[in-house]
Amino acid sequence: MTASPQRPDHAPQDGHSTGQPPFVSSSALESDPHTVFRYWRARTPVIQREDGACLVLRAADVDTLLTDDRTRQIDGGLYSRIRGVPPGPLQDLLVESLLMSEGDAHQRRRAPMSRVLAFHAVESLRDTIRSAAERLIDDVEAGARFDGEIDLMAAFCAPFPPLVMSRLLGAPPSEAEAFAQWVYQVSPAFAPALPGEDMASMVEGAGRLTAYVQQSLAKAMAGEGARSELMENMVAAIGADALTQAEAVAQLATLIIGASDTTRTAMAIQTGLMLATGQAWKRVGDDPSLARAAVAEALRVQPAVGSVPRLATQEIVLDGAIIPAGRLVSLSTLSAMRDPARFSDPDAFIINRTDHPRWPLVFGGGAHRCIGEALARLELEEGLMALSRRLPSLRLAGPPPKIEGYAGIRRIDGLRVAL
Ligand code: HEM
Fold first, then answer.
1. Atom of ligand 1 lying closest to residue 73 CA
2. Which of 221, 362, 367, 413 is the most exposed place for a label (fewest CB within 10 A)?
3. Residue 224 Cα, ligand 1 centroid: separation in angstroms?
4. Per-residue pLDDT, 279
């Protein structure tokens, strides 16, 4: 599919004149979302999938609907039904999670984690995060010299976020490898269903991860193991009856899941993008002060999370297009971050872009805005600085990696590189 302004193959009849958003197939969206969104964003603020879910495309609308009461968060029970999650550990996790709750329950569940993840608190982890990156790069370097090329996704991007999380949990780094495996098993549940997906594996991952967290929490409650402010806050919240134990387990599991696949994917995407654009890699290697801007731009051009799901609490009319009450709404941050009404030359990767907003849409907005934004940025910046400084001649060993998906957490099928 090309970036042609002509009506693309996937474009069906336009029902916009009747207020009904035009239909677009999920397979077209999966394989080339930017082309599909570019075409429709210029013509209508909303499109709909074959299952009736309405995708909001323009930045101003996405911004507004993230915070106003015409939409609400989807609760875990409804999400499980829509997503086909059977009763069991994954459903329990979704039902108890802060991500799928609202109002008082959401605040209670979020509060014990917010201070630990605030920008100033996370900054104190910079040196630890830097040395975790450096240690992983030692192995990457050795592997690439031995084999000629290496999958950076498996060797660096995947193990890095769980390693950082183990530090927050007060767990030994050796445990990170185990829980990483379970997290990557369960995380596809946080994106739209794919043909042939393995729900049993997602459920198993959720079961193992929550059992692990349950054990770690029990140790913290018994005063055993290393001290961690996050765990202490959880124990205090249980002691004060602000959270049940099951709720505490679900919040910690959500945090580990939220921290891992998102950051793994973002790290792989940003590295692939910068290696593909050649000079960007060298520029950041020579001048690490550019890392912050490069990370922000990579998150805009190819975000690791493509949308934020909500439910329409009432009929919503956007520039004549109608989203019926009760409809599943996908606020497409992926589309919004390339909206020419917000960004000049929106499809181009421009490191020193000056039109980034203070609160970028890639981390959502409103009460559920990503709690791990500061940590994610720090990991992505330190990872980029360390990789580009230590491995200045790194290059893609093959065509640029394909980034798939348009909603929830996106996918990248590996990142083969050579020194
Ligand atoms: C590049 C990396 C990341 C991206 C793109 C990202 C994106 C997002 C988005 C869009 C949301 C809002 C979901 C909604 O409103 O429905 C969110 C929520 C959340 N994120 Fe992240 N995230 C990232 C990294 C992290 C990290 C590192 C952590 C943990 C340390 C984390 C933990 C969470 C949690 C727990 C929530 C739920 C917050 C709530 O419901 O109040 N995320 N994230």
1. 16
2. 413
3. 29
4. 86
Within 8 A by CB and 6+ apart from 183, the residues are 162, 205, 209, 256, 257, 260, 261
- pLDDT at site 110: 98
Question: CA 403 to CA 153: how far, in whole Å?
Answer: 13
Which two three-digit tokens encode residue 70? 């015409």
Angle of helix 245-276 relative to helix 160-169, nearest 10 degrees, comes to 150
**CB of 254 closer than 6 angstroms to any ligand 1 atom:** yes
Round the CA-based radius of gyration of the chain to a whole number and report it: 21
Q: What are phi and psi of 303, to 5 degrees?
A: -70, 150
Taking CA atoms only, the protein residue closest to ligand 1 atom 36 is 370
Nearest residue to 190 (alpha-carbon basis) of 38, 76, 283, 293 = 76
Residues 6 or more apart whose CB falls under 8 angstroms from that of 152 comprise: 140, 268, 271, 415, 416, 417
- Is the C-beta atom of 308 inside 6 A of ligand 1? yes
Residue ranges per structural domain of the chain: 16-418
The whole-angstrom separation of Cα 119 and Cα 117 is: 6
Structure tokens at 252: 């910690």
Query: Ligand 1: which residue has its CA nearest to atom 11?
Result: 370
Cβ distance 273 to 245 under 8 Å? no
Torsion of CA 216, 371, 95, 70, to 10 degrees: 170
Residue nearest to atom 6 of ligand 1 (CA): 363
DSSP codes of every residue in 162-184: HHHHHHHHT--HHHHHHHHHHHH
In contact, 396 and 404? CB cutoff 8 Å: no
Q: Which of 165, 370, 375, 403 to mutate to test the pocket of ligand 1 (most atoms within 8 A of CB)?
A: 370
115 CA from centroid of ligand 1 (Å): 15
Confidence band, pLDDT 50/70/90 cuts, at residue 17: low
Assigned CATH topology for domain 16-418: Cytochrome p450 (1.10.630)
For 326-361, write each residue's pLDDT tens digit: 999 999 999 999 999 999 999 999 999 999 999 999
